[in-house]
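Hey team,

Filing this mostly as a record. A colleague (T.K.) asked me to run one chain through the structure pipeline before their review meeting, and I want the input and output archived in the tracker in case anyone asks later how it was produced. No errors, nothing strange. Just documentation.

Input sequence:
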Amino acid sequence: MQTGWSRQTRKGDRGEPVSNPAKQAARPYKVWCAMMLLAVLAPFASAQSKQPAALGSIGLYDLRETSPDLTGRDITIAAVCRSLTYIAGQPQDDYQLNTAHACFLGSEILFPDPFTLSGGVSDHATAIGGILIGRDENASTPDLGPFLYEGIAPQANLHVYEFWRFIRNHVLDNQPIDAAVLTLSVGIPYEDWWTRGIQRIAERDSILIVAGIGNGADVSDPLLYPAAGANIIAVGVVDAALSPDGHSLDRFSLPYAAHSSAGPTADRRCKPDLVAPSNCLIPNADSEDGYHPAGNWTSFSTPIVSGSAALLLQKAQADPVMAEAIRADGGNNVIRAILMNSAAKLPFWHKGRPDPSDDHESPLDYLQGAGMLDMKTAMDQLMAGPGDGEGNKSAGWDSFPIERSGLFEMYYDLTVGPEDRFIEATLVWNRHFRDEYPFEAIPDADSDLRLEIRAIDPDNPDRPIVIDYSDSTQDNVEHIHCPVLAGYSRYQIVVSCKQATGEQLQAGRESEPFALAWRTTDRFYAESQWWNDLNADGTIDDLDRLAYSAFERFAGLLDGKNWTSKMLKLTPERIELLKAHWNRWKPFLTLDSETTELTTR
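Output structure:
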C-alpha cells in the first residue's frame, strides 16, 4: 500500500507495474533522447497540424497564437475518476492515467489517494488526462501523419482522485480540496446524498465544478447528477460531423438528444448549462504512444470545459482585482457566468418550450443550455473586467452580494455601438445545503433573483423601458439574449431579489452573492450550415430538402406519425419546434436553392 501524494508510472492495458529492471534502467536514457528530439523539432512545431482539433473549433488554438502563455500554469485541476473494478464495495484502483504515455512526459500528475500496487490504468481517465494536460510534439497516427498534440491546459497541475475515496474524504470528512477546478465525468440518474454533497462543496468553498450531463437517449441516459445539480456547470456534447470515413475530428455539427441528455430536470430547471465538442484524439491507454478518436460522449466534452475554466482562472489570477473577485464568497459563479454568457448560440437555439415567444421562466435551451463553448469570446468577456455599475461598459462582469430583503436593486449601465444588435446577460448564484450527511437542501435559505434589461429613453431618462427579463422560480441561473431597440444606445441591466420572509432570513443569510456577465454583439446565432439539418439526423441530404418543401407547402400534414413524417425522419417534437419557429429560422436555410450543395459533413 502506498500512501500520501504519489506519482505512478504504469504500462500495459491492465495497469501492470513496470517491473523489468532493464526497461527501468533504460527509461532515463529514453527520456533524455526524447527531450533532445523535442528541442531539435521545436522550431518546426508551428508548421505541424494540431490535435485535438476539437480545441480549434472552440477557438483555443487561435487564442493561444496571441497568448502563448495561456497554458494553465500554476492552476490545479482535480479530476475525479471512477475505478473500473470494485470488490465487496472496495475500489481496486484501476482508475489511473497511463502516465507512461508520451503525452504525459514531464506533466505534473499527482494521485492524492493511497492505492494498492495491483491497481491499473483506465482508458477513460487516460483520455480525460490527455484532453486536459497532454502534450506531445512527436505525435502521429497512420492516417494523419505527424502532428503536435496539445491539451487544453498542458501546464496545469492535475490531481487524480478515486471516486469513492474522494466522496469519503472530501464530501463526508470535509477534507480541503487543493484545486481551482473540479471535473467529474461520472454521474447517476437521480439526486443522492453525495451529489448534494458535491453541490455543497461548490457553495462552501467557491470551487468551480464541471460535470457531464449524460449521453442521451441512445444509451437511455436521463440527466445525470451531479451535473444536473443547481451549483454545477453541466456540459452536453456537440456531435462530430459525419463524413464518408466516419466522424470528423475537426468539424462539428449540433448537439442531438440521442447523444446528449436534454432537460428540463424533474423540478423543471434548465440543464445543461452549455455544450462542447468531444471527438478528440486521445492517448492510447495500453502503450507509451499512439492516439485514437474519443467519440461523441459527454465524458470528453466535460474536460474541454474544465480546461477552459482553468485558462480563464490563470488569466484572472494574474490580475489582483479579478483574483480577489473570484476568491470571494460565491466567486465560483464568476467563471460560470462568463463561460455561459460568451457561448455561441447554435442553430435552433431557443428558450425552454417550443413556443417562439421569449420564455421568461426558462432561461436556457433544454439541449444547448446557453450555447457552445467559445474560448476567444470568453477570454474577451473576462478581460473586459469587473464593472461597478457606472462605467457604461459594453462588456463586463461583476461579483457582489445583494440584500435578500428585496428593498434594493443593482444597476449596470452599458452603451451599445453602431454595429451592436443584441445584448446578452447571464446571472448565476448558488443554492444552499446542510453541512452534514445527507446534505439536505435548505429551500428557505435559497434566493430568487431576477434579471432585467431596460432601455434608457433619451427624452425621458428617468422612465426606462423594460425590453426583456428572465425570472425563473426554479433556476439559479437567469439568461437574456435580446435585440436592442432602434434609436436607443443606452441600456441598464438590473439585478433584483424577491423579498425573503423572516423565516427565510433566519434559515439563510441576509444577502446572496451573485455573479453577472454581460456583453453586446452583432449577431444572435453563430453562422452554420447546420441550419439545413432539419430532421436532426446529423447529416444534410435530400431528406432535408424534401422536409424544407414539406414545411413550406404542406406543414399542416406533418404530425410525426404519418408516413410522410416518418419517411423524412421527423419526430413529433422536431415538427412542433420547426412549425413554431419556421418564419424566424427560414432565412438561415439554404435548402430552397436547387444549386445548394448537399453534404454529409
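Quick notes for T.K.: Residues 21-41 form the longest helix (21 residues). The first strand starts at residue 50 and ends at 51.
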